[in-house]
Design a protein that fits this description.
This protein has a single domain (about 15-89), classed as ACT domain (Alpha-Beta Plaits, 2-Layer Sandwich). Strands 2-3-1-4 form a four-stranded antiparallel sheet, with helices on one face. The chain is elongated, with a radius of gyration of 14 Å. The chain contains two helices and four strands; from the N terminus they run βαββαβ. Helix 1 (about 25-40) packs antiparallel against helix 2 (about 70-80). By secondary structure, the protein is an alpha+beta fold. It is about 30% helix and about 30% strand. It has helices at about 25-40, 70-80, and strands at about 15-20, 50, 55-65, 85-89.
C-alpha cells in the first residue's frame, strides 16, 4: 500500500511504557538498565512505581523520548524477555 506507515506515531515523541512484574528487589533497577540501554536520555528519577493492593506485583511507568519504531520494538523485546517482567503495555 503506497504511503502506508508502520506506526501512527511521529518521532521523536514522549512514549509512556507501563511495565508490570512480580515484587522483587531488583525489578526497578533491572527495568531502568534496560530502558536506558535503548533510551540513554531517560531520567530514572521520573520512573513511577506503584505496588498492587496485595503487594505481589509492582507497576513501573517510564516515559521515554522515542526516536523510532525499531527503537520501541527493541525496547519491548528486551523488557518482555526478562524473567522479572510479566507485562509491558
Amino acid at each position: 500500500m503506497a504511503g502506508y506507515k508502520d506506526t501512527l506515531l511521529e518521532f521523536p515523541c514522549e512514549f509512556p511504557l507501563k511495565i508490570m512484574g512480580k515484587t522483587h528487589d531488583d525489578l526497578a533497577q533491572t527495568v531502568l538498565s534496560i530502558v536506558t540501554r535503548h533510551a540513554p536520555d531517560f531520567d530514572g528519577a521520573t520512573m513511577e512505581m506503584r505496588a498492587s493492593s496485595g503487594g505481589n506485583y509492582v507497576s513501573l511507568t517510564c516515559t521515554v523520548i522515542a526516536t523510532s519504531k525499531p527503537q520501541l520494538d527493541a525496547l519491548y523485546m528486551d523488557l518482555t524477555s526478562h524473567p522479572l517482567v510479566k507485562v509491558v503495555l
